[in-house]
Every structure is written in C-alpha cells, then in structure tokens.
Amino acid sequence: MKEKIRIIEGDITQQPVDAIVNAANTTLLGGGGVDGAIHRAAGPQLLEETRQIGGCPTGEARVSKGYRLPARWVIHTVGPVWSGGHRNEEVLLANCYRNSLRAAVDAGARSIAFPSISTGAYRFPLERATEIAMRETKRFLEGDDALKEIVFVCFGPEALTTYQNVFQRVFGG
C-alpha cells in the first residue's frame, strides 16, 4: 500500500497524474496560493466551468476538467479555516481528503496529486493536517485499490520534511 505514495517538493500544476486536487475556496472561482496557480495554469475555461458548478461547501469535493494542465481532472475541495480546533476543523479536513479520493476514483482517475490542504492562508497546523492527510489516505487505500499512485506535492522544505516524517509514522518503516 505505501508503495503507491510519493512525497515530493514541487509544483502541483506540473504533475503528470490523472487528477490534481485544488485547495479551493467555496466559490471555486479562483483565489491565491494553490487555487490561483491552478486556475492560471488551466486557463480561462476552468473559470467558466467552475462558474457552472456553482460553489462547494467546506469538506466536500467537486470535479472539473483540467484544460491546459497535464492532469485530466481537477478535484476542487474546500478546506476549513483553522479556528483553534473549536469548529470541527479536523473532521472537515478529513472529509476533504476522503471526498477528493472518492471523486477521483469516480471520475476514473488512477493517479492523484494533493497539495497540503488548509495549511497556507487557512492556517491549519502543518503537522496536524499532515497526520489527517496520511490517516485518511491509508484508510482509503485499505478499502479501495483503484488508485495506483497518490502524490503529495509539498511547498517548501519544511512541508516536505513534515510529510516524510508523518508518512513514516502512519505507514511504518
């Protein structure tokens, strides 16, 4: 199972996978960080399609085409804004990963790339968010073997080291 997972530092918009996950806002109309980068790389057709989708509640996922991206699909998910852990943030973040993985499989994807959802402008603590990402990925893989590759694309060396360390803890040596 753990051989299906790769952890890299890089640009999610350049990943040669079937689907990439967009850490979107509830409007799905683009924004800063990963969201803005994905919209810029995909081109204006992505904005046209996400306008038609009509938004996405926190913790859920929506699928669009990838347009000019190497990925065929974009899985848009809205992570929670960290409020000290008092507003169900951990459950909502777990739902982001669970729903994104399911949406990718339902779309026909065999490979997917994730950013670190909610850990930028939404201020979710990196280590806690990484634990949730790895735990939900492990649970998913235990019950579904459709995905052949799951890539966690880290922004910066701190995120990369955190992901590598948490991966070892969750999946074992």
Explain how this protein is built.
The protein is an alpha/beta fold and 173 residues long. The model has no long low-confidence stretch (mean pLDDT 97). Helix 4 packs across helix 5. A six-stranded mixed sheet has the order 1-6-5-2-4-3, with helices on both faces. The longest helix is centred in the middle third of the chain and has 19 residues. The protein has a single domain, classed as Leucine Aminopeptidase, subunit E, domain 1. The chain contains five helices and six strands; from the N terminus they run E-E-H-H-E-E-H-E-H-E-H. It is 42% helix and 18% strand.
| CATH domain fold name | Leucine Aminopeptidase, subunit E, domain 1
Give the CA-CA distance, first to last residue: 13 Å
Give the uncertain stretches in residue-range form: none
- What is the CATH C-level name? Alpha Beta
What count of helical segments does DSSP give? Answer: 5
Number of strands: 6
**CATH architectural name:** 3-Layer(aba) Sandwich
